[in-house]
Amino acid sequence: MMKKYKNLLRAILGAAMLLPFIGFAQQAGMTVQGLSGQNITITGSTLYIPAGGYLNATGNIFVATNQLVADSNNTIITGTTGSRLQLFGANQLDATTPAAATLMDVNGAAFNVDVTTHNPQNVQLTDQAFGAVVTNTRANALFNKEFAFAATNPFTAAAITDNHVITNSNLFIVGAAGSLTGFDAGKYIVTNSNAGELRKLGLNTSQNFFYPIGRAEADYTPARMQVSSGGAVDYYMNVRNFAESAPDENIGGYATMPNVSRTWTIYGSNANTVANMDFIHPGTPTYEVNGYDRNNSNVIRFTGGSWAPNTPNDAENESLFGTPANYFAQQITFAVPNAVGSNSYYGKSNSLIVLPIKLEKFTAVADECTAILNWTTSFEQNSSHFIVERSYSGRSNTWEFVSRVNAAGNSSTIINYSAADAKATAPAAYYRLVLVDLNGNINYSPARTVLFNCGKSKIISVYPNPVHDYVNVLLPQGTEQYTIKVFNVEGKTVLPVVTKASNLTRLQTGILPTGVYIITVIDSVGKSTSTKIIKN
């Protein structure tokens, strides 16, 4: 195999060679340079490039190591036109299955050469300690030319269908002249941490970039950005799910409404830009929860205190920007903030008919076993009535009629309404209002959660069970805070640990495979209570 590619150099960086190699590197810069048209192959445990050192070739540089470590951003991985850095897993040149992921910690070093990854065990941006390199919590990498996901293994011709870059808490940066190619629903950038991002530098007005991102493997929810005005700008993006702490999708009842259960984070280097944003999700029950309807969809944005619906630029469209069938994109145009926070979080929910009824306030509280509901309008035009609905799951097809309250019809003053429900049969329930006008058009209020305090029970309730896309954990009322963990039958934690939980906590379980799991709730003194759930 090596003869076939006429490699100039085969450097075996095994454990026995690491220490003398590092000692040399600490005293002077190191250069590995191939002769014209020749290939370089480097295999073994670790490829370490010290500060001031560089790789350079006019042919291919085949790197099949478990670790790729550079000392600092003074390190340059470069080549001439036609050369390419080919990343493989250790042993992958000699076997069809790599030993492990390629762990990359180049400390911001620039790749001024085309790069292709072939490793089905993934490339991971991972902070490491190696020789003169010390852990500094970041393993960022800058790619100034093409970064490509390989479709086949050049040595075996085997198809590569699963091949990712995992950011962890680090930055995968595509330079102003850089590009991403070869990505698809099985090969993309995984922003598995809230601190991890895919960044694109040097966009200008009318230019666009496709962000092939997902929260995990087999969880592809990409997005596309086009600068509408105000460039030049660098745009930064990741995607996250509802189980994480920021932002809070429970504000305004967003998590209980029909929605796509992913949140995209977007911000940039220039607060004066406006962008056309396309958010893309698979049309499957894992993502389309609570009865989400693609024909009535709406991009929403977290403004810091609430999730605000917006009129979409267009409807959901299938298979745009090279995505497969059953992937749906919807566009919205917004100003892009220059920091994470207000107006940097986006989601997809169902758009509703805007009625000439302005709902100022809607509250729902428990009076022992009775739910007390109060709401206020400041403007009504041709309003007919309100319907109070109750649900124990919050899903769109589980709402049931509670009561009807007649509306004022026409008013431009504050009007207060109220209703009560004493027939709930669970320790917690969701309530919403249906606003109906004289033409029969309807709109919905945000959902409100009521935790009943019948005798102030100390029982921990977990429901529904079996579960599908979420499970509720109802904790004893009071000021005490709890920790919630979810384990599989092997005792491995399978969802992010929730700390400082209180009252009602919703866990997103849609990403879990079918099977049996254990939910463990731990109180402030370490006492734990466990409940078995079935995911179907």
Features:
globular; 1 helix; 13-stranded mixed beta sheet; 536 residues
Offer a concise description of the structure.
The chain has 536 residues and is mainly beta. Strands 1, 3, 5, 7, 8, 10, 11, 13, 14, 16, 17, 20 and 21 form a 13-stranded mixed sheet that branches. Strands 2, 4, 6, 9, 12, 15, 18, 23, 24, 26, 27, 28 and 31 form a 13-stranded mixed sheet that branches. A five-stranded antiparallel sheet has the order 19-22-25-30-29, with no helix packed on it.
Protein architecture, described:
It is a single chain. With 536 residues, this protein is mainly β. 2% of the residues lie in helices and 49% in strands. The protein has 1 helix and 47 strands. Strands 1, 3, 5, 7, 8, 10, 11, 13, 14, 16, 17, 20 and 21 form a 13-stranded mixed β-sheet that branches. Strands 2, 4, 6, 9, 12, 15, 18, 23, 24, 26, 27, 28 and 31 form a 13-stranded mixed β-sheet that branches.
Molecular shape = globular
- Oligomeric status: single chain
Which range best describes the helical content: under 10%, 10-25%, 25-40%, 40-55%, 55-70% or over 70%? under 10%
Q: Assign the structural class, choosing from mainly alpha, mainly beta, alpha/beta, alpha+beta, or little secondary structure.
A: mainly beta
Roughly how many Å is the radius of gyration? 27 Å
- Distance between the first and last residues' Cα: 47 Å
Beta-strand content? over 45%
- What does the main sheet amount to? 13 strands, mixed
Could you tell me the mean pLDDT? 84
pLDDT < 50 stretches = 1-31
Q: What's the total count of β strands?
A: 47
- Count every helix, treating DSSP H or I runs of 4 or more residues as helices: 1
